[in-house]
């Protein structure tokens, strides 16, 4: 159980085209968001969809895979760890961000689908 201290597994749809950055060190980073949906019935028996958005960060080889094969609307499964960071805006406001840093990614979808779409 010691390996389960900070582990996140998500399956969802990519919400925006991944933002790819090439760093001076030669490393690549990809940032994008995914939506996960949860379905339940309310007290009236009506089906309700609850959508959660997650900020995703991928580094190195995984970022290269994201750059080549992941686009808006694509369904992906990923595993990683939850991280939090803060930064200051140009106006001096402090902002906090929670992200999933990806260790593994699996491209889902219809077999035979063009992966570069």
Automatic annotation (TrEMBL):
CDD domains hit by this protein: SSB_OBF
InterPro entries from the xrefs? Answer: NA-bd_OB-fold, Primosome_PriB/ssb, ssDNA-bd
Q: Which GO terms describe its cellular component?
A: nucleoid
Q: Which UniProt keywords apply?
A: DNA-binding
Q: Name one Pfam family in it.
A: SSB
Molecular-function GO terms, alphabetical: single-stranded DNA binding
Question: Do the record's keywords include DNA-binding?
Answer: yes
GO biological process assignments: DNA replication
Q: How does it assemble?
A: Homotetramer.
How is this protein named in the record?
A: Single-stranded DNA-binding protein
Q: Which organism is it from?
A: Jejuia pallidilutea
């Amino acid at each position: 159980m010691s390996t389960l201290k900070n582990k996140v597994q998500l399956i969802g749809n990519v919400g925006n085209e991944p933002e790819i950055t090439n760093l001076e060190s030669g490393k690549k980073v990809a940032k994008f968001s995914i939506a996960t949906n949860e379905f339940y019935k309310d007290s009236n028996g009506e089906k309700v969809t609850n959508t959660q958005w997650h900020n995703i960060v991928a580094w190195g080889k995984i970022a290269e895979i994201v750059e080549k094969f992941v686009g808006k609307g694509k369904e992906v499964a990923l595993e990683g760890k939850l991280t939090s960071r803060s930064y200051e805006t140009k106006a001096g406001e402090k902002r906090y961000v929670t992200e999933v840093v990806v260790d593994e990614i699996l491209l889902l979808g219809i077999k035979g689908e063009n992966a570069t779409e």
